[in-house]
UniProtKB/TrEMBL annotation, chain A:
Gene3D superfamilies per UniProt: MetI-like
Name of this protein: Oligopeptide transport system permease protein
Lineage: Bacteria, Bacillati, Bacillota, Clostridia, Eubacteriales
Keyword entries, A-Z: Cell membrane, Membrane, Transmembrane, Transmembrane helix, Transport
Gene Ontology terms: biological process: transmembrane transport
From TrEMBL, chain B:
Species in which this protein is naturally found: Caloramator quimbayensis
Any Pfam family: oligo_HPY
PANTHER family for the chain: DIPEPTIDE TRANSPORT ATP-BINDING PROTEIN DPPD, OLIGOPEPTIDE TRANSPORT ATP-BINDING PROTEIN APPD
Domain of life (superkingdom): Bacteria
One cellular component (GO) term of this entry: plasma membrane
Classification lineage: Bacteria, Bacillati, Bacillota, Clostridia, Eubacteriales
Membrane topology: Peripheral membrane protein
The protein's name: Oligopeptide transport system ATP-binding protein
Family of the protein in this entry: Belongs to the ABC transporter superfamily.
Length: 317, 339
């Protein structure tokens, strides 16, 4: 297992290198640069001086190599737009909010989606099944930001649920929870739909397997058959879609954080793109990519844990 | 030998979009303690449905066991049992093994645990005792390294080994009846013989009655005490193994016997096969269901279903050829007898 993870890690570094390079050149292909954006009213000579100071007047290939060198030291550089803040610091301050929303959305989406799928499968062709399938179709066809606006209109401001915003530093976790309700729902709605749909199909597939008949013929209770034999086997395909779903959540946060004005990394990302803040764009892209690659690795490891037929390393004969 | 199981007028239908498929149409039979009854017939004749009905494993809907049917186990009607009684019966009193060992075991559960499940429910063992017993069961069905094997998963076993595991699961609680639904169909011939020998040996040791479902008369010859031939959801002939092999009376039984490959068959001879297909059970024929494929078919056969005629205490045939007015017909040459 250790050897496998090491091998995957080396692939990861290669993947990240490609991502960094592609992002770097694409970003530079965008019109303007951080200086022209921020210092529009400065005379061109001063802009030129600033460019020289930040090394932006050097040829692009040279800057690329410089950036890679800097990365090797674990340093993402400084923000051009918010002076005095390094990208590392931005990630450090903005990550907790994003992580909170993201993890919550992954867990809630998985739990509710899988449970709905199981209900739909065991109660197939009943009203419960039709309702779940309706939610599923709705969830995959309506984009997250539409759901977000709908939630704000319908639920926002009602009771204790705020339309947008984030907990202040003095508030506790429990007090802050109310701010996360709407963004979490908006973020995981699509996942719920996907999981429910997959789980229903998967359960129906397993129910018709011969080994379920074997289990029934043993005389064990219906619940034991459902839990140990049906659900245990039906959950395996769900692990497969967990990876892409995590990606959906990560990209979802970028839009959702903006809508609910959550001080997270997604929000910073949009601000950085709008102001051509090169280092922040690159830093956050790398961070998001890393998150995704690592979660894919975790999914693969999980896969080998839930399905004994799959082993990540070649077995010794 | 006491009567253990009695099936009376079993009728099973499936409700499909096309209509009601009458898969089993009034099957009655008995099973005595310690005996082996073989139910023989081609695909779709209702033999599997009959066997699954005994454990009420027919999914409903679309399956539907008719009200007039009775399946008495020790004089108690299985079809009227409640959930709990049924669970105690399944695996405890009556066990079942299925056709395809490759798909009949749960792929994500260790072999030992799959055997233990049975023991925990029916013999009140705790997990540790059950796993210990599972090892003994694996040894009993001839799996080497049982101690190690209990902790393995089905994909680490070959087809024949898996069928042995299935037998271990089925026999774990020492049931009175073992229903084996085509237990050797998915296995190659040498493994088939091993599995049949194993079942015979275990029956001698444990005294389990076996209902053996198969389409292969060759498999039946060495193990069955009695044979019942089914066609289109009905029993057309029944008798002891000797009667069926040495003195068959029904043209369908003849045809089945003729289709068994024999040692003396020449290499270039084409193996006999019954022409045509079984009738559509959406609209079962009024007369004898075999009429359209029968070489000896008479006018009456298409109009009426023949009543069973007793040949001996044990042999019974439903065919108009046995009517006193019917022409005398000799069975084809070279069928049956010793295989």
């Amino acid at each position: 297992m250790g050897k496998y993870i090491l091998k995957r890690a080396s692939y990861m570094i290669f993947t990240l290198f490609i991502i960094v390079t592609a992002t770097f050149f694409l970003m530079n292909a965008m019109p303007g640069d951080p200086i022209s954006q921020q210092a529009r009213k400065m005379p061109p000579e001063m802009q030129q001086m600033l460019r020289h100071k930040y090394g932006l007047d050097k040829p692009i290939a040279e800057r690329w190599i410089m950036y890679l060198k800097q990365l090797l030291h674990g340093n993402f550089g400084d923000s051009f737009v918010t002076p005095g803040f390094s990208v590392n610091e931005i990630i450090k301050y903005k990550m907790p909010a994003s992580a909170w929303i993201g993890i919550q959305a992954v867990i809630v989406g998985l739990l509710i989606g899988v449970i709905l799928g199981i209900i739909a499968a065991f109660r197939r062709n009943t009203t419960a099944d039709y309702i779940v399938m309706f939610i599923a179709i709705l969830g995959v066809s309506v984009p997250g930001f539409v759901i977000a606006f709908l939630l704000q209109t319908v639920l926002g401001g009602k009771g204790n649920i705020p339309i947008a915003g984030w907990k202040s530093a003095s508030e506790t976790f429990a007090q802050g929870l109310r701010f996360t309700i709407l963004p979490t729902i908006a973020l995981c709605f699509g996942s719920i739909a996907t999981y429910a749909r997959y789980m229903r199909t998967s359960v129906l597939d397993v129910i018709n397997q011969d080994y379920i008949l074997t289990a029934q013929a043993k005389g064990i209770s219906r619940i034991a058959v459902a839990v140990k034999h049906v659900i245990r086997n039906a959950i395996i395909p769900i692990v497969t879609i967990l990876g892409p779903q995590i990606a959906t959540i990560i990209t979802g946060t970028i839009v959702i954080e903006r809508i609910f004005s959550i001080p997270g990394m997604g929000n910073s990302m949009i601000e950085a793109i709008n102001s051509n803040d090169y280092n922040v764009i690159l830093g956050l892209t790398i961070f998001f990519s890393l998150l995704y690659i690592v979660s894919l690795l975790l999914v693969d490891i999980t896969y080998s844990l839930v399905d004994p037929r799959i082993s990540l390393t070649k077995k010794k004969k | 030998m006491g009567k253990l199981l009695e099936v009376k007028d079993l009728r099973v239908s499936f409700h499909t979009y096309a209509g009601e498929v009458k898969a089993v149409r009034g099957v009655s039979f008995e099973l005595n303690e310690g005996e082996t009854l073989a139910i023989v017939g081609e695909s779709g004749c209702g033999k599997s449905i009959t066997s699954k009905s005994i454990l009420r494993l027919i999914p409903s809907p679309p399956g539907d066991i008719k009200k007039e049917s009775q399946i008495l186990y020790k004089d108690k009607d299985i079809l009227k049992m409640n959930e709990k009684e049924l669970r105690m019966l399944r695996g405890g009193e009556i066990s079942m093994i299925f056709q395809d060992p490759m798909t009949s075991l749960n792929p994500t559960m260790k072999i030992g645990k799959q055997i233990a499940e049975n023991l925990i429910v029916h013999r009140g063992m705790n997990k540790k005792e059950a796993i210990k017993e599972a090892v003994k069961m694996l040894q009993m069905v001839g799996i080497p390294n049982a101690q190690e094997r209990v902790n393995q998963y089905p994909h680490q076993f070959s087809g024949g080994m898996r069928q042995r595991v299935m037998i271990a699961i089925a026999l774990a609680c020492n049931p009175k009846i073992l229903i084996a639904d085509e237990p050797t169909t998915a296995l190659d011939v040498t493994i088939q013989a091993q599995i049949m020998d194993l079942m015979k040996e275990l029956q001698n040791n444990l005294g389990t009655a076996i209902i053996l479902i198969t389409h292969d008369l060759g498999v039946v010859a060495s193990i069955a005490h009695r044979i019942q031939v089914m066609y289109a959801g009905m029993v057309v002939e029944r008798g002891t193994t000797d009667e069926i092999f040495y003195n068959p009376k029904h043209p369908y039984t003849w045809a089945l016997l003729k289709s068994v490959p024999r040692l003396e068959t020449k290499h270039k001879d084409t193996l006999y096969s019954i022409k045509g297909t079984p009738p559509d059970l959406l609209k079962p024929p009024v007369g004898c269901p075999f009429a359209s494929r029968c070489e000896y078919c008479m006018e009456i056969c298409k109009e009426q279903m023949p009543k069973p005629t007793k040949i001996s205490d044990t042999q019974e045939v439903s065919c108009f050829l046995l009517h006193p007015n019917a022409p005398k017909v000799e069975p084809p040459q070279g069928i049956g007898g010793k295989l």
